[in-house]
């Protein structure tokens, strides 16, 4: 297992580079050599049981509460029986944007606050907060109160979205991180499937509450329970958590702009795009499921391969290529070519869910140390979410059914993201080669990333 940045390597390494014995320092902490492969695997499995269920449940409900606005729109939230008519689509666009405004405003402050306090407590409390805000959306009776509810959903999720990748990067090594990130983010496309199924089901419920109100209650309340579960189970600091033994503590201590804009647009308008392809009414909710299901499978496969070979750039390039193809098909196919246009939506979803976990993992690995991760991860997400504010305006109702403006903008962003990924990969490879020439191949030594971050001798970038 690699040594994390929280551990002082001088405590374990003698001047010659050999591992010190416990007797040298009078320390009872097991030396590195005692952490054999079987022990490390057992520790990883234990961490998976402690961390991944709570993280996945929270991300599932986060994705549900972020993405259900599009489903609520098709169920009548926007209209005479909801919070008012919206002939131009501008009111819905602003409602969608307010989530991202609340998210962007609070991402970096909450992440820095989490780093200085207890990350697990911030994550759990955030789930409780946005769950209350999401469920409360069922009670709104005006456009103004709906705006406030969406802002507070974004505010609550700002304490989770950028914090959880930082939290996972604290507990998992580079060779384990991308797969765990993809398992965590698997809940995103799964949420799309659940959203479609729940929306389809509530559309048949005839009662005192409108179906769109039931949707917010059904998908908002579980987030509160998930937040409480996270508070009770997620380990806090590695040196104090009650869930690990002393030896396990010692071992574990050693242990996204273009894609976010496109992803936000797809999340907000996928039900609408599916409807315009030709699937209307309740059946439109069912036809949102295959794109998410395909995306989930492809994301796990690509991230497993990425972890296996410790390469992020090729996967990112492939993800952007899928999205570029999808939006090119939307631009090039006529509204009568329904099967082709539906297939394009599948390509778009597959591409974005490949890019999201790899993008976050890439940022975490190349930040160098924990302090830089605490800033770089929320900064990457903040910039992406800032652009995502405009996503609600990319597919206005007046552009139906071709949506040439939105498809063109998204395709341009995907091409730009692919170019950036290629350039970044090349630059990282060249920098690693330069460091190999100056320092010699990096092997065995523990880089002092706690002090020098990615500038430390022996540090190599993941490309």
Describe the overall structure.
With 463 residues, the chain is mainly alpha-helical. It has a single domain, classed as Growth Hormone, Chain: A. It is built from 18 helices and no strands. The chain has helices spanning 22-25, 37-74, 90-116, 119-136, 143-157, 163-171, 174-185, 187-202, 211-233, 246-253, 257-277, 282-286, 289-309, 313-332, 338-367, 370-388, 404-439, 449-452. Helix 3 (90-116) packs antiparallel against helix 4 (119-136) and helix 4 (119-136) packs antiparallel against helix 9. The longest helix has 38 residues, at 37-74. It is globular. The two termini are 20 Å apart. The model is unreliable at 1-34 and 248-252 (pLDDT under 50).
Uncertain runs with pLDDT below 50, 5 residues or more? 1-34, 248-252
Q: Roughly how much helix do the residues carry, as a percent range?
A: over 70%
Distance N to C terminus: 20 Å
The CATH topology is Growth Hormone, Chain: A
In percent terms, what proportion of residues is strand? Answer: under 5%
Name the structural class: mainly alpha
Subcellular location: Membrane
GO molecular function: transmembrane transporter activity
Main location: membrane
Region (Disordered): 1-31
Key words describing this protein structure:
disordered N terminus; 18 helices; 0% strand; 70% helix; single chain; mainly alpha; Growth Hormone, Chain: A; membrane; MFS; 463 residues; transmembrane transporter activity
